Amino acid sequence: METKIIDGKKIANEIKKELKEKVIKLKEKNIIPTLAVVLVGKDEASKVYVSNKKKACDYIGIRSLSYELPEDTTEEQLLDLMNELNEREDVHGILVQLPLPNGINEEKVIQAIDPKKDVDGFHPQSVGALSIGHKGFVSCTPSGIIELLKRSNITIEGKECVVVGRSNIVGKPMALLLLRENGTITVCHSRTKDLKEVTKRADILVAAIGKPKFITKEYIKEGAVIIDVGIHRQENKKLCGDVDFDDCIDKVSGITPVPGGVGPMTIAMLMNNCVESAESLA
Ligand code: GUN
């Protein structure tokens, strides 16, 4: 069977090029799309993520405002900053990199973001809007996966879709988005009995488990499309996903690599949300 590696990096680059054009048009109207990027503390992984997001902003022409705050920032200070950024008419998106240091209530901070600027799609209002099919920002990893499937000409309608993982950021919104596209959805998690029996039914399998190389060929159906959300640093320093890529590759009709699959799409969708926010607030 011919195997198709789904090139997330290439598709993300196409989206970023399209966004660049949109930003040029906005700038002709004197609107500069602006994203406030808030990083608290010194989590090394978060620093890398934030730096990649700012690089994407630079490429597209989105202005990024950097707020790098010390580990001992208080919840009150952060809430004050959210209020300030909500008020600013020149700020179109607010991104608070998670996790926040101990002692700061993440939910409270997320809820302080104006849903109109919630480009991460984490605010309860955004999540609620998604669940009833109203307009609102959608979490970037699952929306990136839908875009990846569409641009790879993979039909979702009528397909058996299995999502492994039920996080608020990936698993749950992923299930809702696949449902919106008329897939038949099953969500699995750590308490699922006979996981293999369920994942083997999937035409489209989304792995967001958080365990390196967990999904092997025994978990998949011949010809399935496999989307790997995981990213892990192995002992040999190489990155891998939740899927054992080498073990599965001969059995699938499509699979995302790690790196270069879902990750770049998450950033592309964040950029898309920023541009959309600037367009709608304009
Ligand atoms: N931490 C891990 N993933 C994300 C993300 O997509 N957005 C934010 N803000 N923080 C994260």
TrEMBL record:
One of its GO terms (cellular component) is cytosol. One of its GO terms (molecular function) is methenyltetrahydrofolate cyclohydrolase activity. CDD domains: NAD_bind_m-THF_DH_Cyclohyd (cd01080). Gene3D superfamilies: Leucine Dehydrogenase, chain A, domain 1, NAD(P)-binding Rossmann-like Domain. Pfam families: THF_DHG_CYH, THF_DHG_CYH_C. Residues 139-279 form the Tetrahydrofolate dehydrogenase/cyclohydrolase NAD(P)-binding domain. Pathway: One-carbon metabolism; tetrahydrofolate interconversion. InterPro entries: Aminoacid_DH-like_N_sf (IPR046346), NAD(P)-bd_dom_sf (IPR036291), THF_DH/CycHdrlase (IPR000672), THF_DH/CycHdrlase_cat_dom (IPR020630), THF_DH/CycHdrlase_CS (IPR020867), THF_DH/CycHdrlase_NAD-bd_dom (IPR020631). It comes from the Bacteria. PROSITE patterns: THF_DHG_CYH_2. HAMAP family: THF_DHG_CYH. Belongs to the tetrahydrofolate dehydrogenase/cyclohydrolase family. This is Bifunctional protein FolD. It comes from Natranaerovirga hydrolytica. The gene is folD.
